[in-house]
Amino acid sequence: MTSNNMLPKAGTLRRVQGVLLILSAILLAQCEENTYRIGERVYKANCANCHMDNGEGLGELIPPIANSDYLKNNRDKLACIVRYGLKDTIMVNGKQYSEQMAGIKLEDVALVNLLNYIGHSWGNDLKPYTLEEVRTMLGQCATQQ
Ligand code: HEC
Fold first, then answer.
1. How far apart are CA 126 and CA 89, in angstroms?
2. Is the pLDDT confidence value at 2 over 80?
C-alpha cells in the first residue's frame, strides 16, 4: 500500500493539469490584452485625429469606424485601405462619404495590431487577423495599385 503513495495519483495529475491550463489561459489573455493596447496606441497616433478617439468620425467628412457596417462588409480590404488609402464614394451606416483618405505607412505587425484593435472596439466584432493573413492581403492589393 505504501508503494502506491510514491506514484502521483490520477486526481493529483488532473489538478496539476488544471492549474497549468488556467496559467496558460491567463498568459494568453495577457498577450491578447497587450497587442490590443499596442493597437490602441497605433490608432491614437495615426487615425484618431480624423476618425476620433471613439471612432465616431466627423460629420459629413469622415466616416465612423465605430459600429461600422463598412468595416464588417470589407474585412478583407482593410489592410489595403489603411496602407494605400481610399478614394471612393462609400456608404457607411446609411450615410454617403466621398472625401479621400491617404495611405498610412505602418509596419506589418503594427498594422495587424491596429486592425485587431478597431475590429474589436466600439461594437465591431471582426474575425481576428493574423500577420500571415494581412501579408497575403497586402500582396494582393500591392499588385493592383
Ligand atoms: C486625414 C484624415 C484621415 C486619417 C488620418 C485616417 N482616415 Fe480613414 N478615412 C478618412 C476618410 C475621408 C475616409 C472616407 C474615404 C472615401 O470616402 O473614399 C476614410 C475611410 C476609412 C475607412 C472605411 C470607412 C469606414 O469608416 O468604415 C476605414 C476602415 C478607415 N478609414 C480606417 C482608418 C484607419 C485605421 C486610420 C489610421 C491608420 C485612418 N483611417 C486614418 C479619413 C482619414
1. 23
2. no
CA 111 – CA 52 distance, rounded (Å)? 18
Confidence of residue 31 (pLDDT cuts 50, 70, 90): confident
Contact assessment for residue 24 and residue 30, using Cβ atoms and an 8 Å cutoff? no
Query: Does residue 93 contact residue 64 with C-beta atoms inside 8 Å?
Result: yes
Of all protein residues, the one whose alpha carbon is nearest to atom 34 of ligand 1 is 47
Atom index in ligand 1 nearest the CA of residue 61 equals: 12
From residue 116, alpha-carbon distances to 72, 78, 120 in Å are: 13, 11, 6
As a whole number of Å, the end-to-end CA separation of the chain is: 76
CA of residue 88 to ligand 1 center, whole Å? 11
Gap between the Cα atoms of 107 and 73, Å rounded? 24
Give the C-alpha separation, 32 to 52, whole Å.
23
Which is the closest atom of ligand 1 to the Cα of 115? 35
Q: How far apart are CA 123 and CA 4, in angstroms?
A: 56
pLDDT in tens, 48-105: 999 999 999 999 999 999 999 999 999 999 999 999 999 999 999 999 999 999 999 9
